[in-house]
Amino acid sequence: MLIKIDFSSDEAIYQQLCNQIILGIATATLEEGDPLPSVRQMADEIGINMHTVNKAYTILKQEGFVKVDRRRGAIVSVDVDTLRARAQLEKDLRKLLAQARCRNMSRQDLHRMVDDIYDDYELVCGTGHEV
Amino acid sequence: MLIKIDFSSDEAIYQQLCNQIILGIATATLEEGDPLPSVRQMADEIGINMHTVNKAYTILKQEGFVKVDRRRGAIVSVDVDTLRARAQLEKDLRKLLAQARCRNMSRQDLHRMVDDIYDDYELVCGTGHEV
DNA sequence: CATCTGTTATATCATTCATATAACAGCACC
DNA sequence: GGTGCTGTTATATGAATGATATAACAGATG
Fold first, then answer.
1. Span of A85-89, A93-97, B79-83, B122-126 with lowest mean pLDDT
2. Residue A73 has pLDDT above 90, yes or no
3. Is the Cβ–Cβ distance between B100 and B110 less than 8 Å?
4. % chain B with pLDDT above 70
5. CA-based max dimension of chain B
6. Min distance A52 CA to chain B CA atoms (Å)
7. What is the pTM of this model?
8. What's the average model confidence in pLDDT over B19-37?
């Protein structure tokens, strides 16, 4: 898994890290049961502090994307049926759609955008589980 | 326009203010040409500092939701064809859809969610410009 | 001239982000 | 049993951000 951090971004490093791991899971680059590099190893690889990685892992754990085994480290384990996640997702989508409506984007525009991005993600997957 | 700030939220006050004004425009509670309260008046109304309101207005101006007239204050004026806005919107949607895919949500699930929220926004509008 | 507007300049305080050093407990391997 | 790897916790520091406060300025309105 290749991680790329933009240090000049206004987005926090731990947040970028979370997003890229979630993206990895979404595109099946990371699959159920796959181990993540240890906090120290990941920190070395991308040149950041151990605690920043640890913060990202802790959040991923809380949000149900990984489980942490004390001896083996962080392992991809997605909690699919988390209601909190879906509720938060809808809240975020509401903010996004408010902006979209201000820009005169129609439902169809949004549907198309969703499809395009899903196509994109499934392309990376190579095979399987198109929905 | 009724503004409600959650002071215990982790979301910044100026950010909440921006979001609610954008939501107001999306639901036609605020329409093209409508004036926003002056920075001092708005600050008094919701019990926050003038500079926090000013920060929100400045961002709304930069992102093309209002224009600021020195003598009349901030006025709703939406820049519909801003490419930057659409690009940023797609970036945000990508992050959101990555999470959605991890939760096993299908394209149809997302389409339905978009439609529901749009229904909701158009309900508030009362009439006109359904898309 | 008084009063409203946005805007700018400082300053202060709390919180967050990222860093650093250090230590601890659990497990695996030799 | 010691070495080396995990995550985890504690504490500290420096930079940046968020929100506040006081103050002033330029432009427009009455």
1. B122-126
2. no
3. yes
4. 95
5. 52
6. 19
7. 0.91
8. 96
Confidence of residue A127 (pLDDT cuts 50, 70, 90): low
Candidate from B78, B93, B95 with C-beta closest to A102: B78
Residue with tokens 């009362």: B126
| Distance of C1' in C9 from CA in B43, Å | 20
φ/ψ region of A24 (left if φ > 0, alpha if ψ in -120 to 50, else beta) reads alpha
The H-or-E segment that residue A74 falls in is strand A73-76
Neighbours of A124 (CB within 10 A): 12
Residues contacting residue B114 through CB under 8 Å, at least 6 positions apart: A93, A97, A107, A110, A111, A114
Q: Which residues contact B121 (CB under 8 A, 6 or more apart)?
A: A97, A98, A101, B26, B27
Beta carbon of B71 within 7 Å of strand C? Answer: yes
* CB contact B121 to A (< 8 Å): yes
Asked if A98 has any chain B CB less than 8 Å from its own CB, the reply is: yes
pLDDT of B131 above 70: no
pLDDT for residue A22 is more than 80: yes
The nearest CA of chain A is from the CA of B50 a distance in Å of 24
Please report, in angstroms and rounded to a whole number, the separation of the first and last CA atoms in chain A. 24
Question: Locate tokens 């100026």: which residue?
Answer: B14
Three-class DSSP category at A41: helix
Which among A82, A89, A118 has the least Cβ separation from residue B107? A118
Report yes or no: A125 at the B interface, CB cutoff 8 Å: no
